[in-house]
Structure to design on (224 residues):
């Protein structure tokens, strides 16, 4: 059973990554009917929502696109910044979706930002406590590690509504601004859905690992 579990937590993220890369590659070859590139798309949606203070910048790397709330900047990877593809404008609109969430103080986004330091600390220290607790057979240390790990898992789970909401906003904005036609919505949704799968996979694996550790803790307590 352990090997089956191990295979599941390894294969799920690999499949999600393969899916997003293959979908992105496919639709990066399909041009958006408007002829707008990612940078123009991001700027148009930002301006339509009154976010004139948010900058759009190019950033190196593949699929390194993100919104930085600290300096109010949408950063798009080179291909998406300059490209005119359905994939590029979908990713650009998604990142702008986060900027709109930031402007509107979207509750889940604010909660996720508040969790960042806790989640980072928890992910760094949890495995140390867990390993020491397991090797030394000290249930209290194992439990402490599980508690810290739970904070990191909560961050993964809270990320899901943030990402799905940003994608939903992206679809609405792409159509309203005129970046894509109605008949291009299906292809655009495929790009956004594939990207969302990576977050679903990460959250699922994190939850499964947390449950496994809780079962180990229960077993250790029963042996005492």
């Amino acid at each position: 059973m352990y090997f089956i579990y191990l295979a599941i937590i390894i294969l799920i993220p690999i499949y999600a990554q393969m899916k997003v890369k293959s979908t992105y590659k496919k639709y990066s070859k399909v041009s958006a009917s408007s002829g707008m590139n990612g940078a123009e798309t991001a700027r148009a949606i930002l301006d339509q929502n009154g976010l004139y203070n948010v900058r759009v910048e190019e950033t190196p790397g593949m699929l390194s696109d993100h919104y930085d709330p600290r300096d109010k900047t949408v950063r798009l990877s080179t291909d998406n910044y300059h490209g005119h593809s359905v994939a590029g404008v979908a990713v650009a609109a998604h990142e702008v979706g986060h900027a709109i969430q930031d402007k509107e103080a979207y509750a889940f986004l604010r909660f996720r930002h508040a969790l960042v330091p806790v989640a980072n600390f928890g992910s760094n220290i949890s495995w140390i406590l867990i390993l020491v607790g397991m090797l030394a057979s000290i249930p209290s240390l194992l439990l402490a590690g599980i508690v810290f790990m739970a904070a990191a898992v909560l961050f993964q789970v809270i990320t899901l509504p943030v990402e799905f909401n940003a994608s939903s906003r992206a679809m609405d904005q792409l159509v309203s601004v005129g970046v894509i036609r109605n008949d291009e919505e299906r292809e655009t949704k495929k790009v956004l859905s594939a990207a969302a799968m990576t977050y679903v996979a990460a959250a699922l694996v994190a939850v499964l690992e947390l449950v496994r550790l809780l079962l180990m803790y229960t077993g250790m307590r029963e042996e005492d």
